[in-house]
Amino acid sequence: MLKKGYIVITLLIAFTLLALFLWTRKANAPKITTKLPNSDMTITSPAFKNFERIPKDYTCDGEDINPPLDFSDIPEETQSLVLIVDDPDAPFGTWDHWIVTNIDPTTTGVAPNSVPAGGTQIMNSFGKLEYGGPCPPPGKDHRYFFKLYALDTLLDASSIQDKPTLLAFMKNHTLASSELVGLYSRRDE
Fold this sequence. Notes:
- By secondary structure, this protein is α+β, with helices and mostly antiparallel strands.
- It contains two helices and nine strands, in the order αββββββββαβ.
- It has two domains: 1-30; 32-184, Phosphatidylethanolamine-binding Protein (Alpha-Beta Complex), CATH 3.90.280.10.
- The chain is 18% helix and 28% strand.
- It is globular and about 65 Å long.
């Protein structure tokens, strides 16, 4: 009985430390405005509209490929674009599905199952460089944010290896931003 008590206490301490770690990581993350004033830049998809369901093909339940995306009204002075796809509803904090930097500013979109022109992919929360589609636990809808940023510079790919470093760098170089939100859940259909 005494051993069981130690195991329970140890597990409680471990979960408490994990929760504290995740909370401090989120609290210390750089903040970026997702909509800048006077920005007409847009990101859309012919596969789904804003706040509509993402088709199964673009999720782990389908082909697990990126959906088609369209970019418009990129500011003239843009030197590069950044695309971040993440899920803020993940159980242990925001889950990164795709991060692409140094996209050519003349790019008008991304075809399914492809990397944007000139883009450099950064490791996502799956531990992969490539797109990882929505794959939430069964239950409620998760929101998937497809965020497009116009930057006034190119990034040094060797110095930007993770999302926190990227966000800190972008803080002083973002000209415009836009987002598209798709929904997905793994309910029985």
